[in-house]
Amino acid sequence: MMWSYEIGKIRGIPIKIHITFLFVLPLFMFVFSVDNRFGFGDFPSPYNYIWGLVTAILLFVSVLLHELGHSLVAMRYGSRILGITLFIFGGVSQIEEISKKPSEEAKMAFVGPLVSFVIGVTLLALYMGLSVFMDGGIIRVLRVLGFINILLGAFNLIPAFPMDGGRILRAYFATKYPYIEATRKAAFIGKIFAFLMGLVGVFVSIWLVLIAFFIYIGASEEESATRMKSVLEGVKVRELMSENIVYALPDMRVSELLELMFHTRYAGYPVVSRIPENAFITVDDVVGIITFRDLQRVPFTQRETVFVKDVMNPIVETIDVNDDVAEALKKLQGSASGRLLVVENNRVVGIISRTDIVRALQILSVREET
Questions:
Q1: Is the C or the N end of the chain the one with fewer CB within 10 Å?
Q2: What CATH superfamily is the domain 237-369?
Q3: Of the listed 67, 104, 105, 222, which one is catalytic?
Q4: Can 369 be counted among the known catalytic residues?
């Protein structure tokens, strides 16, 4: 996720905080500090705010442990974990490829709520045991976090994407139907659930309407993403790449590159340190990528004095010519330039962009329907 910052690692998994987390943490602290039933509103100031902050931080630690459960099980089944990010809606595990085996997906999905239930039951047991002998902030924290973790586990078992219950439901359907059909059925049930929740929310609480909207969008996105992967399955990078590559040089002025863009109609160019006599470009020759968006950031008055090397992206991402397009799409999700150099035996043989894949996806989808 953009605007996320790494704060550490657990078992090699990057732990990140999204900028929205910095807004929601004070909000939770305030809610806990003023609420009498599930907070510390009856505590004198400033202790109510101190305990509110402690509870808010520990709540997100609980969310982190929930997501860590998903990630560790996914790693056990061979998935690569890009990171865990805490943000305004809680936390998300960025798993590069979720297993399509029903039993593995079900276990990976269920372990998150299980972690929440274990935390909740443990904290409530400590609360009931210690509250006989003592009272105060610690006891209140145990009770509040115990209840919230149990609610968190139960909420995530709702049979609708993007909750864990939606993945468990898909895993069940996948034992009877092809994976894409299982996703369609699980997404359909999730949308029905979201519609009914939203309907109830109109009469009960606006929060239920917002949650219903979140569930409906999540179900739709999961269905679309799965369909996209299914359509692209088996398509190789060499089938979609552009072989006619136009290169830019680091010492070109921005004005010169804009003129080149006008004539070639490309929106992105690899930047090479030199043009070899044999016209073969290797990965080592490429020093960056520059796109039309990079040039747009250069003021009009500076286009004669600013050079390509000053505004290019020095990070060059590559993919093998024989890799699946689905793999290219995964790499492009975090790509700033939106382009990958296609290589074969260290030679640059083409370039593939996010636009190339989207266009191919549209065509393949229509072809599949016919």
A1: C
A2: CBS-domain (3.10.580.10)
A3: 67
A4: no
